[in-house]
Amino acid sequence: MRQHNLSRVLHSLADQGALSRAEVAGRIGLTRAAVSTLVDELLRGGLLSERGPGRSGSVGRPGSQLLLANRGPCGFGAEIGVDHLTVCAMDLRGTVRARLERRLRLEGSDPVPVLAELASLLEALAAEAGALGLWPAGLAVAVPGLVARGTATITRAPNLGWSEVDLAPLLPSGAFPLRVDNEANYGALAELWGDPGADGPGSFVHVSARIGIGAAIVVDGAVLRGAHGFAGELGHVPVRPGGPLCSCGARGCLETYAGEAALLRAAGLDLRGDPGERTGELADRCTAQDPAALRAVRQAGTALGIALSGAVNLLDPQRVVIGGSLARLTPWLLPPVRRELARRTMLTAGGRTTETPVTGSLIGPAGPLLGAARSAVRGALDKPARLLAPPGGGLMA
Amino acid sequence: MRQHNLSRVLHSLADQGALSRAEVAGRIGLTRAAVSTLVDELLRGGLLSERGPGRSGSVGRPGSQLLLANRGPCGFGAEIGVDHLTVCAMDLRGTVRARLERRLRLEGSDPVPVLAELASLLEALAAEAGALGLWPAGLAVAVPGLVARGTATITRAPNLGWSEVDLAPLLPSGAFPLRVDNEANYGALAELWGDPGADGPGSFVHVSARIGIGAAIVVDGAVLRGAHGFAGELGHVPVRPGGPLCSCGARGCLETYAGEAALLRAAGLDLRGDPGERTGELADRCTAQDPAALRAVRQAGTALGIALSGAVNLLDPQRVVIGGSLARLTPWLLPPVRRELARRTMLTAGGRTTETPVTGSLIGPAGPLLGAARSAVRGALDKPARLLAPPGGGLMA
């Protein structure tokens, strides 16, 4: 129970930034005296710091503000992309303090050397973090594939050519908890946690496009994972059942209209450049009013709007957010998406017809990495006992 | 806390049927002594009865079995259908003890006299229930339309022609809680609660067809309601975006292929008979190998399979259940549904490709009424204080 209350104090500060003891007490429903005892323990353990209101110097007076520490435990986030490995260290306040990246091509790669590379990148990150007084209390890895629910195993990552890869034995996870999830889910969580002013826990569909198209469905603040962990496969929702052949073997999936390769082909662009990054060129051409580019994006938007109409009819979300590489194309993509949604979904609430709002993500392509790091931080805040007694030894302990 | 523990004793018996005191204690994690005190209070209040194991006659000995009472409080369920009003009284054990129905045509009806008719039917049900020693502790109404989340207001019921109808002032709800929900949601809950041997809380998509096609999405044992309460509109998921015009104004919705009118038209049948019941004739023709009937059902099954492929890709449910009037057509409907799902969804779990199972509902068209009544019973079991001190006065108190 005490551990639980310590965790609630930490989470209230993670959500709000800075609070007085009285404000913490109000938020978590404990007495001021009980909160003071908890706060003292966390201050002694170095998990909190205190900021005076500027009038007097005494620690613990009513007006002083508590903050999470920006030294000590932190969360490590990692992203395995088709063309990059990226890692970052996020302190308890949610600030990214160190970031490292290796550019490389991972299509059809052997997972063992790739994960050895990622492990060495994490060692380098631990060294950088250590120089800042930070040590990793958790690691979360965003991957471009399906992860079996409750495991660290990539069941299938078609764009890497990986299947049934268990990350746990190949990554430095002995000293702290390891989480692995689909990049679309972490991207959606970054969107959720990045909006502290939101009115209650959100319910939204977050579209995450790189090479393929995925989505995460967030219901009342939690990602809907599905029976096997495979929910959110928006890219394979049928748009036109007799349409073009998809890499999955079906016909007319959304990816055959709005996936990166389909978009570039329709715009008359070739497939050079880094996969997942080539829509930048397409956005430039749209800005220059290139007719083929505009037509390609319009057609992709229509297909995306048809697939999202199905999702909105089934899920009735508060909103739809377009993230990943498609977020760059929103000036041209959103009008046809909105037109299809207006035609194909009927939402009558409180006596008036409402439309489900569709917006581009403000977080951009860093979403999955930030969501993973934040997930590691939040997981660490759940277990304050581990943070008050940090493990000795190195990263691979 | 005591109310909460009384409620947990009642729910454990509602879920399991009959249990000894020791079994109840094991299920809810309290001591045998604490459970005995709770059970004594519930026995005194008439909410439980006791059944000896046949060896000795003393009350309260270890081997005796506890059961919920089959007298006293009960749940009232009601269904407003396009061609009927039906009500039933379900005792705490989940047995329907009384049932009344009026056949009438409600397309384009005025809601005020219809709800007056329903109120008089509920008065008659209360009289029948009273003769059995039962009194209503809650009422739940299944309606063929959208209900705004957390209200008793039908936002839109296109097949009745109703919009913005608040049931609360028009039904006898002064003496007990009133719940109103979409018939598809109650049908799904009947499916969920009707399977006590299921392995944990279910996650499934329940298709509910009458005249239109709806669905309920159950995630970890709870109906996913959506931001406004309008989730599950499977009938308006696009199947072929340029397809036939739907009553909703869009083109190619699932209802234009698999709704009752579309099915009968494709089979060359006219639209006589009771709406929502006319698929019986179609099933007879399929049994007789009528080619037009078989072709119509096959085409509907293909369209249903395409729409469900989208739902399965998005939601990754454990299973899909076909209920309502389409359940009668499953011998001919399921093969094309399964073929489309096998083509258009890719689920790889634990190293092997799995298919999401699709089955017909075993509950049949009574699902919404049974789910509503069970919902009223479960709501009553949440508030044992009300059941231990039943209200005096009549139904309209």
Automatic annotation (TrEMBL), chains A, B:
Bilayer-spanning residue ranges = none
Q: Which domain of life is it from?
A: Bacteria
In terms of Gene3D superfamilies, this protein maps to: 3.30.420.40, Winged helix-like DNA-binding domain superfamily/Winged helix DNA-binding domain (1.10.10.10)
Q: Which InterPro entries match?
A: ATPase_NBD (IPR043129), ROK (IPR000600), WH-like_DNA-bd_sf (IPR036388), WH_DNA-bd_sf (IPR036390)
Q: Which SUPFAM superfamilies match?
A: Actin-like ATPase domain (SSF53067), Winged helix' DNA-binding domain (SSF46785)
Similarity comment: Belongs to the ROK (NagC/XylR) family.
Quote the protein name from its UniProt record: Xylose repressor
In its UniProt entry, the species of origin is given as Streptomyces xiamenensis
